[in-house]
Amino acid sequence: MPTISMFYGIIIRMYYAPGEHNPPHFHAYYNESTATFSIDTLELMHGELPRRQLRLVQAWAELHQDELRANWQMAMNGEEPCRIQPLQ
Questions:
Q1: Which residues contact 7 (CB under 8 A, 6 or more apart)?
Q2: 32-54 tens-digit pLDDT
């Protein structure tokens, strides 16, 4: 699963494999915590992150939602997703 962004100790990844399960989503990792977020709603689907990191991931995803959707389409075609600018 390639890393598509990293910021403030948070790693964002997305699987790329045709037929990856819906809904469109990405994974966030921070220390021992992991979470899965919906690209469409930006809501936490599974897992948990500390409150501050949760807010940072959601703010980043809101800024890059179109890029996340484009990456999901690439992933569904078996292509490696592109890197996305970190939150600054």
A1: 56, 60, 86, 87, 88
A2: 999 999 999 999 999 999 999 99
Pairwise CA distance, residues 79 & 63, whole Å = 23
Check whether the bond before 23 is cis (ω within 30° of 0): yes
Burial annotation 46-84 (CB, 10 A radius, 16+ → b, else e): eeebeeebbebbbebbeebeebbeebbeebeeeeebeeb
CA 32/CA 40 separation, integer angstroms: 25
Q: Which amino acid is at 33?
A: S
| pTM, 2 dp | 0.92
d(C-alpha 44, C-alpha 55), whole Å? 10
